[in-house]
C-alpha cells in the first residue's frame, strides 16, 4: 500500500525531512559554535547542513583562542523549532565541537555585519548616494570620478536597507562578511 501511494504521487517522509507538519513557521536563529581549530571541522559542520537540506544564511569563522586552538563559527539558519533543535543536537555530537549556543533564545545578543557597497553614478545620483551614506553613517573607503565604495557596519537589516536605497542610485557590487554575534551582559 505504501509503495502504491508513493507511485501515485503521495508525499513520503524522509528521515532527513524533520519539518513538523503541524508547525511550518520557520524562524531565523543565530548559532555560535566553539570548535577545535583543525582541518576539516568547518567542512563537517557545513556537511551536516547540506546533507540534510538545511540552508545557511550567514557564516563567519575565526580563531578566537590561539593558545587553545579554538575557533568560533557563527551561523544564521532558518527552520521550524523542531529543525533548529535537531540542528543544535547534531552539531553538539560532532567530535571537535566544544559548545553550541543558540543566541536567539539564550537572551539578548549583539549582531553586527560589515558590508562594502560599490555605487556608480554621476551628478545628482552621486550627491544623493553621499547624502544617504551620511544618514546611515557609512564611510567612503574609495572614491573615483565614476564610483564610491562605502563601508557600513550594522545589523543585517540595516545593511539590507542601505542596499535597497543604493540600488536605484547605481549599486553595482556588494560584499558582506556575514553576522558576527555575542550575547549581551555577563
Question: In a few lines, what is going on in this structure?
Answer:
Catalyzes the conversion of 2 pyruvate molecules into acetolactate in the first common step of the biosynthetic pathway of the branched-amino acids such as leucine, isoleucine, and valine. It is built from five helices and nine strands, in the order H-E-H-E-E-H-E-E-H-E-E-H-E-E.
Descriptive notes:
It is a single chain. The protein is an alpha+beta fold and 186 residues long. It has two domains: 24-102, Alpha-Beta Plaits, CATH 3.30.70.260; 110-183, 2-Layer Sandwich (Alpha-Beta Plaits). Helix content is 29%, strand content 38%. It is built from five helices and nine strands. The protein has helices at 2-7, 41-51, 81-93, 124-136, 156-166; strands spanning 27-36, 56-65, 70-79, 97-102, 109-120, 139-143, 147-154, 171-176, 180-183. The strands form two sheets. Strands 5, 6, 7, 8 and 9 form a five-stranded antiparallel beta sheet that branches. Strand 2 and strand 3 form a beta hairpin. Helix 4 (124-136) packs antiparallel against helix 5. The termini are far apart.
CATH architecture field of the largest domain: 2-Layer Sandwich
For the biggest sheet, the summary is: 5 strands, antiparallel
The oligomeric status of these chains comes to single chain
Number of domains: 2
Structural class: alpha+beta
Rg, alpha carbons: 21 Å
Helical amount among residues, as a percent range? 25-40%
Compute the average pLDDT.
88
CATH class of the largest domain: Alpha Beta
Low-confidence stretches: 1-20
The end-to-end distance, rounded to whole angstroms, is 57 Å
Task: Examine the coordinates and then state which fold CATH places here, giving the name of the CATH topology of the largest domain.
Answer: Alpha-Beta Plaits
How would you name the CATH homologous superfamily of the largest domain?
ACT domain
Task: Count the DSSP helices.
Answer: 5
Count the E strands: 9
**What best-fitting shape do the alpha-carbon axes yield?**
elongated
Strand content: 35-45%
Order of helices and strands: HEHEEHEEHEEHEE
Pathway: Amino-acid biosynthesis; L-isoleucine biosynthesis; L-isoleucine from 2-oxobutanoate: step 1/4; Amino-acid biosynthesis; L-valine biosynthesis; L-valine from pyruvate: step 1/4
Subunit structure: Dimer of large and small chains.
Protein name: Acetolactate synthase small subunit
InterPro entries: Acetalactate_synth_ssu, Acetolactate_synth/TF_NikR_C, Acetolactate_synth_ssu_C, ACT-like_dom_sf, ACT_dom, AHAS_ACT, AHAS_small-like_ACT
